[in-house]
Amino acid sequence: MTGDAAETLRMLRSDTMRLGKIDGAKAAASPAAVSNGYDSVDQCVRKWLPLATRRRKAAERSPADQARWDRLIEAVTRPRRPSDVTYEGLVVLVSSARELLCALRRTQPPFVSVAEVAERIDRRIKVGLYPPGTNLSPSSIAADLELPPDSVTLALIDLADSGAIERRPNGRARVPKTDPTVPLPAAGE
Prior knowledge:
Keywords: DNA-binding, Transcription, Transcription regulation
Order of helices and strands: HHHHHHEHHEE
Domain HTH gntR-type: 117-175
Number of domains: 2
Pfam family, one: GntR
Protein name: GntR family transcriptional regulator
Largest sheet: 3 strands, antiparallel
InterPro entries: Tscrpt_reg_HTH_GntR, WH-like_DNA-bd_sf, WH_DNA-bd_sf
Strand order of the largest sheet: 1-3-2
Low-confidence stretches: none
Structural class: mainly alpha
């Protein structure tokens, strides 16, 4: 890890810890304290939004990853009216900000993109490491490939959207079974 990446990671950890102190009992003491809590979250998040936007742009080959970044960014930047500024809203905002910072930490270099994770899984399917009918467990694949489980889950969503795998009604993924009436391609085709 480069010095800049290590420093960014340190700052992300520090700001994540700082966020944990914003929505405590002191914030519930008065409307002014709640308002100050919102300002503190906004100030913290504002400096990380450019990095989150770059991560979203870098995820252009993965619709599921882009949707994740869109959701994370929108959760901390949606406009609010004065009537929305409540302690409960502050708790939700702090949680959303923490989730954004954690996602930024998990995607610090060295990081394998979700699109690359999908390519690795697809290669394993094509060479028969995951034969037809195999259930694809994100945690097992993550352990096998030494990757973050959330990246594997997003990759499986992308693979299902492309038709490479099936998503079951229960949310699980599996390699489609081959149709016995359709001849398999000969080797080298």
